Amino acid sequence: MENILTQTTARPQATAPAPVTSAQPVIQLREIEKIYQTKTIETVALNRVNLTINKGEFVSIMGPSGCGKSTLLSIMGLLDEPSGGVIELDGRPVQAYSDRELAALRNQKIGFVFQSYHLINDLSVLDNVELPLLYRPGVGGKQRRERAYAALDKVGLSARTGHFPSQLSGGQRQRVAIARALAGRPEIILADEPTGNLDSVMGEEIMELLLNLNRQEGTTIVMVTHDEQQARRTQRLIRFFDGSQVS
Ligand SMILES: Nc1ncnc2c1ncn2[C@@H]1O[C@H](COP(=O)(O)OP(=O)(O)OP(=O)(O)O)[C@@H](O)[C@H]1O
């Protein structure tokens, strides 16, 4: 099977992907607030954020440290609850979903990629990729393995299934993390500084992989980044400052 890494387009330093033809919102944030309260200080991490992510978009989010980017991604991915406002998934407020439905959405609809990979060092590459599928109802052992192999093939790591994370480079570890997200066949990938720990060559490799996923598979991607060049290659760049969208 051809992997996504090798399916480079005719435009290596590709411009932004083709625009989405009909806007179909998958995530909508309405007046989202997040306030962290500790004993000594109250922090307004998100200040009445309104944002729509459409199906098939690749959106990047930039802003200075502490402006609320990771908080925003956690709330979009239903990992954290806002202090106020409404999140809609596929046009339906998340409050309307039962806890069970929400858990299923988090597990099936959304894939996460983090700066520090979050791989389990004691598990092989294959087992790491299979892990989230253990909690997926209706996916048996054989299917889990097949999906994990297919996902690793897509990111060009078929030859490394028996390796452990410590035997891989940073870029390869991030590719395993992306394969782990892909094995769940998510419609949306939320990536928090996916190239933040990588040198420019490996960072470029991961960026190409994400761009190809978006272009070829139509995966909706929201990526937090500190890299302006990478951000400019996505369809839409949103800038944050002090918990608010500024452009
Ligand atoms: N669990 C928490 N408890 C208290 N304050 C928090 C918590 N998590 C985040 N914050 C605060 O909320 C604000 C936004 O944090 P967040 O991690 O979202 O910023 P960021 O833009 O992702 O930063 P960076 O680029 O450094 O990762 C910061 O002021 C941070 O200190």
TrEMBL record:
One of the record's GO molecular function terms: ATP binding
Superkingdom: Bacteria
InterPro entries reported in the protein's UniProt record: AAA+_ATPase, ABC_transporter-like_ATP-bd, ABC_transporter-like_CS, ABC_transpr_LolD-like, MacB-like_ATP-bd, P-loop_NTPase
Keyword Nucleotide-binding carried by entry: yes
Cellular component terms per the entry's GO annotation: membrane protein complex; plasma membrane
Keyword line: ATP-binding, Nucleotide-binding, Transport
Entries under Gene3D superfamilies matching the protein: P-loop containing nucleotide triphosphate hydrolases (3.40.50.300)
Protein's recorded name: ABC transporter ATP-binding protein
